[in-house]
């Protein structure tokens, strides 16, 4: 269970899942709205739940909920059109309320925060259905219907909450302080909402246009505090680009003037100059490496060209020339791949440089366009700063301007006339009384309204009425549901429990590692016994090793040792500098290159047999066994013992330098590796499977890859035979939950690489026992698997592609 919990923690901290979390938990808006909600509401279990999730609350609603709420809206609209049908409405409402109560009760399960989750999600669904139904109706009709709907919806949910209190402690202050103070209005604009609320505003003592004018006048003074917070957040960004800056500005309520924008731009330019200097230094370093590789290609080509001329002059066999050409090919290809990677890194620097230049050219207007201004923001800001004051002269000016726009509204003019006071030169209004009425409206109407808006911004239900959601969104919903982080209404999911013992595990320790790859050539002993010719055996083995080293250098591997029947390859981020002998201090990084190298080594081993099958007749001419006719032979027609020749067993182990792996020059001046990882990789390379090469790696290698790839999928018993794009949300959710729950490994999608937990795909091994339960796997020096608890244990994975199965 501990291994599984660690794996789950790695999954949830991968860049891929962090991206999904930011999208579907809506990090920017969550930060923006939650901070406000937390300040303007009393402490509540629902607030604590949101804080724990660090993102929007996700709710999955079953089909019956949609049907019930759709029927409720349709039947009530029908009843309002003909109130003589009261008996039919009451019969429907009785059946409906019983169904809703049962679903409500089953979901709440005695958890107080679930009461709020259920009610917000259902109110939001009802509002969406009502909005769709009333789309063609006039504003006046919407006003009348919203008041009637608000009364019956509040009555319904109040009845259910009161009924639940018999079994559950219901903390519903957040609902009572919000929804029960405002009408149930379909989704609408600020202007239309103010039309709905204007009669209430008038009863409270101010016409809505006057209130709105005062509010807009006050919020102009609210930007100062946010400017410093935004500058602090921008200063912590690892890179400056339009998206990162926009995300910070979108996550805050910010109403800057030009001086505030200028302050931020000055800070951005100062930070940009420092980052630009870092990029220039990195470009210089990359350029030096590229020039060094180009010189090396030129020198190697000249030397080998001379050697080829000499071989042609003293021609004896084709093999000597072929070997020289292969060495040249390997050298040039290896350097060419290094150049390709460096050019990619250089282009990445140029892209960052261009992004920085764009940011450093910003004018206040450019930055201002990145500031999000929602039409409801003034209301939110007013609630946040409800105790702030406005100057007397400014207030008088605002009132006069607002009343000029209300000349034809007799009711508004009459209401405002009661606040008139005599003035020395011109008419004034009693600012103390008006601000008192303004504050009363803020407290009794605007604050509950803002709370409703915030609550519905912080809760998302699925599926949407459109039933549209991306496969990635469905996948994220399924993953979160299995971990108990989605409120599932009318759908049961077996939550995968965690024992909580790995909460302090630092997943970052897997992100940057070094790796050692050990490969073992299968059948080399058999080949030597059949050849009975050491010179020929050495030539054949060297020919094979050339093909292996060609692949290793292609992926940045550093050949450390030729073991005769295999080799040891080292992988580090700064392999260029190590190969150029500029340093012996490896840098940790992404070890996907080691995994891709192993895959291609297996593929190259197969190609080696195909390319050289015509030579078997000559190579094994002196075989003492029964006569074997190699003429016209194919791999499939070879005897099993000959098929194993040139299969490889590859082991990869990854960890931290220098604690688990140490690189140095030995007494002969050659590279040498020591440490636990070398012994482990060597042991993994001894795993044999009938009729195929094998690649076995440790969990650190797989976790490192997960933390460095753009996306991945789960490898499960069900496989990937279903295209999730063709599924609706419910089918897709069930599919991804099944994938996640039955996973036996991972698929690195962009590279089509599979990582299956060791043992699952190795049922036909000849020497190793297979463990199919959750016990730790320990492989001893004799390649036996034992079940025991030890201080150091690792999960092992088999690596393959579809073409290698």
Compact summary:
By secondary structure, this protein is of the alpha+beta class. It is built from 30 helices and 18 strands.
Strand content: 5-15%
What is the helical fraction, as a range of percent?
Answer: 55-70%
> What is the number of beta strands?
18
Major β-sheet annotation: 9 strands, mixed
Poorly predicted ranges: 760-791
Radius of gyration: 36 Å
Structural class: alpha+beta
First-to-last CA distance:
29 Å
Helix count from the secondary structure assignment:
30
Indicate the mean pLDDT. Answer: 80
Task: Give the overall shape, derived from the CA principal axes.
Answer: elongated
Strand arrangement, largest sheet? 7-8-6-9-12-18-15-14-13
What does this structure look like?
With 805 residues, the protein is α+β, with helices and mostly antiparallel strands. 56% of the residues lie in helices and 10% in strands. It contains 30 helices and 18 strands. 32% of the residues are buried.
């Amino acid at each position: 269970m501990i291994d599984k919990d660690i794996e789950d923690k790695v999954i949830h901290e991968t860049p891929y899942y962090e991206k999904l979390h930011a999208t579907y938990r809506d990090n920017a808006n969550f930060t923006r709205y939650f901070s406000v909600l937390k300040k303007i509401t009393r402490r509540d279990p629902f607030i604590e739940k949101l804080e724990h999730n660090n993102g929007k609350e996700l709710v999955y609603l079953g089909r019956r909920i949609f049907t019930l709420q759709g029927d409720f809206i349709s039947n009530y609209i029908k009843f309002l059109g003909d109130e003589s049908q009261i008996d039919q409405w009451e019969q429907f409402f009785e059946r409906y309320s019983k169904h809703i109560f049962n679903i409500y009760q089953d979901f709440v399960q005695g958890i107080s925060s679930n009461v709020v989750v259920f009610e917000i999600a259902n109110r939001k669904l009802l509002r969406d259905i009502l909005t769709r139904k009333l789309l063609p109706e006039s504003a006046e009709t919407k006003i009348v219907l919203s008041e009637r709907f608000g009364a019956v919806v509040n009555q319904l949910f109040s009845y259910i909450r009161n009924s639940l209190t018999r079994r559950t402690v219901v903390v519903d202050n957040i609902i009572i302080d919000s929804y029960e103070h405002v009408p149930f209005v379909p989704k609408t604009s600020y202007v239309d909402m103010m039309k709905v609320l204007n009669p209430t505003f008038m009863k409270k003592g101010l016409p809505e246009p006057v209130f709105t004018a005062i509010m807009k006048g006050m919020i102009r003074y609210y930007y100062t505090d946010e400017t410093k917070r935004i500058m602090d957040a921008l200063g912590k960004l690892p890179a400056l680009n339009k998206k990162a800056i926009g995300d910070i500005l979108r996550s805050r309520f910010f109403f800057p003037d030009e001086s505030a924008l200028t302050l931020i731009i000055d800070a951005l330019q100062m930070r940009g100059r420092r980052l630009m200097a870092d990029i220039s230094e990195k470009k210089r370093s990359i350029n030096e490496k590229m020039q060094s590789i180009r010189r090396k290609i030129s020198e190697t080509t000249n030397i080998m060209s001379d050697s080829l001329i000499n071989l042609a002059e003293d021609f004896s066999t084709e093999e000597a020339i072929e070997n020289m050409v292969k060495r040249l090919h390997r050298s040039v290809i290896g350097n060419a791949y290094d150049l390709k990677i460096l050019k990619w890194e250089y282009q990445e620097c140029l892209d960052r440089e261009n992004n920085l230049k764009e940011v450093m050219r910003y004018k206040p207007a450019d930055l201002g366009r990145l500031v999000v201004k929602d039409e409801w923001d003034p209301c939110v800001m007013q609630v946040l700063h409800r105790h702030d004051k406005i100057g007397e002269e400014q207030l008088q000016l605002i009132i006069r301007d607002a009343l000029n726009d209300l000349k034809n509204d007799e009711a508004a003019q009459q209401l405002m006339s009661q606040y008139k006071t005599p003035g020395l030169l011109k008419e004034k209004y009693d600012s103390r009384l008006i601000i008192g009425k303004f504050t009363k409206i803020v407290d009794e109407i605007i604050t509950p309204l803002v709370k409703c808006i915030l609550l519905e911004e912080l809760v998302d239900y699925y599926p949407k009425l459109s039933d549209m959601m991306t496969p990635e969104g469905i996948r994220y919903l399924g993953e979160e549901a299995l971990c108990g982080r989605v409120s599932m209404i009318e759908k049961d999911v077996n939550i995968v429990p965690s024992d909580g013992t790995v909460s302090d595990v630092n997943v970052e320790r897997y992100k940057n590692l070094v790796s050692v790859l050990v490969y073992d050539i299968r059948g080399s002993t058999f080949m030597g016994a059949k050849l009975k010719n050491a010179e020929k055996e050495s030539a054949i083995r060297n020919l094979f090793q050339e093909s292996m080293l060609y692949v290793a250098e292609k992926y940045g591997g550093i050949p450390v040792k030729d073991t005769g029947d295999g080799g040891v390859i080292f992988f580090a981020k700064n392999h260029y500098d190590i190969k150029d002998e500029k340093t012996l201090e490896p840098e940790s990084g992404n070890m996907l290159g080691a995994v891709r190298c192993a895959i291609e080594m297996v593929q190259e081993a197969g190609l080696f047999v195909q390319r050289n099958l015509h030579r078997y007749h000559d190579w094994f001419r002196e075989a003492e066994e029964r006569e074997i006719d190699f003429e016209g032979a194919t791999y499939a027609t070879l005897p099993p013992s000959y098929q194993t020749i040139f299969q490889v067993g590859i082991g990869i182990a990854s960890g931290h330098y220098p604690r688990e792996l140490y690189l140095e020059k030995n007494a002969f001046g050659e590279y040498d590796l020591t440490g636990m990882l070398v012994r482990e990789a060597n042991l993994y390379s001894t795993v044999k499977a009938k009729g195929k090469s094998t690649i076995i790696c440790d969990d650190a290698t797989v976790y490192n890859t997960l933390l460095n790839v753009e996306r991945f999928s789960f490898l499960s018993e069900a496989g990937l035979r279903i295209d999730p794009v063709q599924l609706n949300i419910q089918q897709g959710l069930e599919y991804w939950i099944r994938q996640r729950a039955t996973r036996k490994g991972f698929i690195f999608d962009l590279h089509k690489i599979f990582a299956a937990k060791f043992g699952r795909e190795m049922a036909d091994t000849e020497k190793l026992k297979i463990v199919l339960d959750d016990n730790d796997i320990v492989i001893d020096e004799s390649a036996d698997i034992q079940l025991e608890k030890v201080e150091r244990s690792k999960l092992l994975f088999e690596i393959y592609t579809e073409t290698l199965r």
